[in-house]
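lol ok so funny story. i was supposed to be doing the assay writeup but got distracted and ended up predicting the structure for this chain instead. priorities right. anyway since i did it might as well share w the group, maybe its usefull for someone
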Amino acid sequence: MMRGTLAVAIVAILSSSQLLAESLVGSKPNIILVITDDQGYAPVGRHGHPWIETPNMDQLYDQSTRLTRFLVAPTCSPTRSALMTGRHPMRNGVTHTILERERMTLDAVTLPQVLKTAGYTSGIFGKWHLGDEDEYQPHHRGFDEAFIHGAGGIGQAYDCSCADAPGNKYFDPVIKHNGSFVKTKGFCTDLFFSAALGWIDSVKEKDEPFFAYIATNAPHGPFIAPEENAQRFLDLGFTDKEAGFYGMIENIDENLGRLLKQVDEWDLANNTVVIFMSDNGMTGGGSGRMGKMIGTTPEGEKLYPYNAGMKGLKGSADEGGVRVPFFIRWTGRIEEGKDIDRIAAHIDLFPTLTNLAGAENPSEQVEGRSLLPLIENPDAEWKGRLLYTHKGRWKTGEDPNESQWSDFAVRNQRFRMVGKNELYDMRKDLGQTSNVIEDHPEVVERFTKAYDRWWKKTVPLMVNESAPMLPYRPFHVQYEKQSSSVGIPEWKEPQF
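and the output, tada:
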């Protein structure tokens, strides 16, 4: 009996090794991408956070290959446009998060459109934030299923097209479902995961693979969490905002656990890639002030905000403003518990996923690289490159060139140059405490010239800079029209 068991075990190991050795290119797995809003890198247990409880993120971390230097934009719309196109946000016309400058150029070919050429069906659940006018909406840009809120956050509204449904709240929000509004019951994050799971259940038996894009509104402000999630932090002395921020993260973790459990129960883990990431650095609005106590344990231990030793938060061109988690799991096909420390970026996700799907990238659009060679072999030959960060967000109507040399950074594997006067050796100094600009003039010269060339090629692609403010809010107009004609029906939460 033992000999037979041993033989089975050896065959299983060999089969697993063979699968791991097979190329991932063109393998066409299902893809589930979970992206959180303003969480950043630090609030994950496995990233060394001393008191947050994220058992499901930690489990996914353990089961994944992790890109430990995954870099995005300092704010949300820019990152999302890079994911959807494979090129720098500003080259999509996205230089802000509001005021018509969050709209992703209609000339771009989107990720779901390319995946469709490889037979994929796609769904988005949660935050889009790349244009609220109808032609910019995801159900017109390649997604077969769209269950979203408007603007950059639930309930937001600005004097332009960027606005969610009027009066929306985190609980029982009105959601735009495939172009029409529905009324829901429950907390926003729970609803987005439920909608995604219901859709996956409806497509999982079909012949074609699926792409599920779960983009939570949490933990974006206003910082509101379900009572059971917030109360733990209130009991520790946190403010309402801080309890809301960290409570939302622990609620996301619960939903991630629900997702992973269902993937296993549906026997999808062996043919489904699961990716977890965030859209920019941790927000300072709800995370607390660095170095200032925000609570105490029942035993009297003082609790402080944690940013993994990095400088900068959301909105910053420093490392802490742009570094996020990136876990990628495919049971039996992608190695578990492996770290890749090469710099990678938001522009790389598009070509990575199209490479997985065996789809052809749109000509002259994609600037990123497929990460599959590194995921298959962290020691693979990988040419160095420069990554460019700019906060954007200059005032409407201003010449972008006036802001070229402010709020920017250039990064390679070793160095981060922040503005013209700061250079940091990121291998030795993650916290950016020692400015080494005087020691490496050749690096500064190379970075400066490269950035200047990049900027000059980028400005002509900033297509929203002269756009007039739309005099109405599309979500508001459509909501009022639907409400007065056919009404706003109740959304039926899927059962599975």
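The mean pLDDT is 96. The first helix runs from residue 2 to 21.
back to the writeup now i swear
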